[in-house]
Amino acid sequence: MKLSRRQTLTALTATAGASVLPKVTQATPMVKAAESFKVCLNLSTIRGHKLGLIGELETASKAGFRSVEIWMDTYQEYLKTHTTADLRKRLSDLGLTVQNCIGFAPWIVNDDAARQKGVEQLKREMGLLAEIGCKRTAAPAIGMQTPDAPLVDLYRAAERYRAILDLSDQTGVIPQLELWGFSKNLNKLSEVMFVAIESKHPSARVLLDIYHIYKGGTAQASLPLVGKPAIEVFHVNDYPATLDRATITDADRVYPGDGVAPIRETLMLIKDPAKPIVLSLEVFNKGYYAQPADVVARNSFAKMQAMVKGV
């Protein structure tokens, strides 16, 4: 049967749509609205209290959190006197899951010898994280973030990101390519996404942040261009109206809802119907560090609960 031009175009359009839009089956269940996000505490929020890893974990758990992001230096300090088995048990007793780790291995630098040491460092850190069930680690452009750093070729950056993604095939811990708005390199979503895509690795993921999106000048309208699988953890915080992009710093971040950031609009843009996204509160506020740690943790949990309500 000979098809008309209109029939042919109709058939092609239907076929294309079928290839792009995944079918919703029992294997890909839709996530209920209440399960769209998991609230998490990045332990930076109480890092200034100098509680040590166990003190931080206990404080987060008592406040109501069931997910945390730890810091590698605090974890390694703990391991000087304890084992990974000790920490697994403590996490289980506290009802906590370590969703991600903040580390600073220099995997992206231009110097070949320094970069190789950074990759080896990251591999060791991934091994330690795997032993406590953590499946992610942050991968910012450490070593290439200062104003006097050279601009890294994005194709080279993609090759270097691919190299640490290959480590994830061995360890099960996936490096999350982090956007830093203040950095000389990888300070915009366009750069981070280029490197992630050009890495050509199926496990490539990006770690974004309300504050860093603002600081780096990424337009909120760009967020829908990020493929849904690419975001597993998203850092949340807020910022005051009195500070512009040029002058705002890490320490100026505040609780969600206490500033002017378009948080709820952002959450609607990144919301994934197929899986919950971990929303981790990351602030470095000296005013909070001056308050009791348990008060900060309880306030953090309450602010996070209010933030996701109805989204």
**Which spans have pLDDT < 50 for at least 5 consecutive residues?**
1-28
CATH topology (level 3) name: TIM Barrel
Taking the sheet with the most strands, its summary is: 8 strands, parallel
Oligomer category: single chain
Number of helices: 11
What is the percentage of strand-forming residues?
5-15%
Question: Structural class given helices, strands, pairing?
Answer: alpha/beta
Give the CATH H-level superfamily: Divalent-metal-dependent TIM barrel enzymes
Known CATH architecture = Alpha-Beta Barrel
Task: Write down the CATH class.
Answer: Alpha Beta
Query: Which radius of gyration do the C-alpha atoms yield?
Result: 21 Å
Which tags fit this structure?
alpha/beta; TIM Barrel; eight-stranded parallel beta sheet; 11 helices; 8 strands
Topology:
Elements: H1 5-20, E1 37-42, H2 52-63, E2 67-71, H3 72-78, H4 84-94, E3 97-102, H5 112-130, E4 136-139, H6 154-171, E5 174-178, H7 189-198, E6 205-209, H8 210-216, E7 231-236, H9 263-270, E8 277-281, H10 286-289, H11 293-308
Parallel strand pairs: 1-2, 1-8, 2-3, 4-5, 5-6, 6-7, 7-8
Describe the structure.
This protein is an alpha/beta fold. The protein is 41% helix and 14% strand. It has a single domain (35-308), classed as TIM Barrel (Alpha-Beta Barrel), CATH 3.20.20.150. Strand 7 (231-236), helix 9 and strand 8 (277-281) form a beta-alpha-beta unit. Helix 2 packs across helix 11 and helix 5 runs parallel beside helix 6 (154-171). The longest helix is centred in the middle third of the chain and has 19 residues, at 112-130.
